[in-house]
From TrEMBL:
The ABC transporter complex is composed of one ATP-binding protein (MglA), two transmembrane proteins (MglC) and a solute-binding protein (MglB). Keywords: Membrane, Metal-binding, Signal, Transmembrane, Transmembrane helix. It holds the Pfam family Peripla_BP_4. Belongs to the bacterial solute-binding protein 2 family. The chain crosses the membrane at residues 12-31. Residues 43-317 form the Periplasmic binding protein domain. PANTHER family: D-ALLOSE-BINDING PERIPLASMIC PROTEIN-RELATED. InterPro entries: MglB-like_PBP1, Peripla_BP_I, SBP_2_dom. This is D-galactose/methyl-galactoside binding periplasmic protein MglB. GO terms for molecular function: carbohydrate binding; metal ion binding. One of its GO terms (cellular component) is cell envelope. SUPFAM superfamilies: Periplasmic binding protein-like I (SSF53822).
Length: 343
């Protein structure tokens, strides 16, 4: 009887040993899979238009951030960039491809910020986190899932800083802006997109800040130039021929359009007009040094790119995102500052 019991005990020990070996083997397999995932991250980037002056700089800086991280941490990071060509249907198809290929993270610069819901739902179903940037989805869409974030500058802050820059220049030398000395500054405005949140808010607060600063202003005309230098140049040529020296100030929602206005002034061989932009792209900074552009609101592309990459990298490694840098757990607001020849 004791012998039978002893044999049973031996058999139970063998069974338990087999179970331990099997469990250990499975843990090793899963650990190997996790290690493989950590060793390689694929990031899909969907831009609204890759040749946008500011976005192209951000994308270039994003690639540099990935390269630096790759070298520092000995990890393979693949960043693929697609061009939405200002068409939401094209961008949707590109994002669908990233999802089908099971990318670790998708970064999206929306063509149409109001159309993010479908993208969010598809990514959520595939459990692929999203980092939106530069074009902020509506608040309701940002609340659809916890694995989505936004990186961008504050549009109101940009408008206020731009307005303050003009007020500062006006107070320093009124004749520089109020060229006919009548006490009223006549301006034209180049806006980004019809109905675009940043464009609307930048315009509103730039002009309101002029008024708050004690300037009396009059709008001569304005146009939607789609953030584009060439379109801005065309509009500016037309206005210069129509209004001539009546134009005392050019307000632009971004640097690229501001540079287009300066191109038109140069082409028509007219006296320089006080012109301000937003973004701080290299071409604008060079124009300020040449005293063609009065100033810009700098929103450093490197800061945008690094913030986008830091979040994407953490998500790709399945680590928690640094909440200390986030507003409401989802938003990164990149700092901005005024820049003129004197700065």
């Amino acid at each position: 009887m004791n012998r039978i019991r002893k044999n049973k005990d031996i058999i139970m020990m063998i069974i338990l040993l087999c179970i331990v070996i099997i469990v250990a083997f499975q843990i090793k397999i899963f650990a190997g899979k996790d290690q493989k995932k950590v060793d390689s991250i694929r990031i899909g980037v969907a831009a609204y238009k890759v040749n946008d002056a500011f976005i192209s700089t951000v994308l270039s800086d994003l690639l540099e951030s990935a390269k630096a991280c790759e070298q520092k941490n000995n990890i393979k990071i693949r960043v693929d960039i697609s061009d939405g060509k200002e068409d939401q249907m094209i961008q949707n198809a590109q994002i669908d491809k990233y999802i089908a290929l099971d990318y670790d993270v998708i970064c999206v610069n929306m063509v149409d910020r109001t159309m993010a819901a479908t993208i969010v739902d598809k990514a959520k179903s595939a459990d692929i986190p999203i980092v939106f940037f530069n074009r902020e989805p509506v608040e309701e869409d940002m609340l659809r899932w916890d694995k989505m974030y936004y990186v961008g500058a504050d549009a109101k802050e940009a408008g206020v800083l731009q307005g303050e820059m003009i007020v500062d220049a006006y107070n320093k030398d009124k004749s520089f802006i109020d060229r006919n000395g009548d006490g009223t500054v006549a301006y034209v405005i180049l806006e980004g997109e019809s109905g675009h949140q940043d464009s609307l808010v930048r315009t509103e607060w730039s002009v309101q800040t002029l008024k708050n600063g004690g300037m009396k202003v009059e709008k001569l005309t304005g146009a939607i130039a789609d953030w584009d230098r060439n379109q801005a140049k065309v509009f500016m040529e037309k206005w210069l021929k129509e209004y001539g020296n009546q134009i005392e100030l050019i307000i632009s929602n971004n640097d690229d359009m501001a540079l287009g206005a300066i191109d038109a002034i140069k082409m028509l061989n007219m006296e320089q007009i006080a012109t301000v932009g937003i973004d701080g792209i290299p071409q604008a900074l060079a124009s300020i040094e040449e005293e063609k552009l009065l100033g810009t609101v700098v929103s450093e592309s490197k800061l945008h790119a690094q913030a986008i990459f830091d979040i994407a990298y953490s998500l790709g490694k399945e680590q928690s995102v640094d909440t200390e840098k986030l507003i409401q757990g989802k938003y990164v607001r990149v700092k901005q500052y005024k820049f003129t020849k004197e700065d």
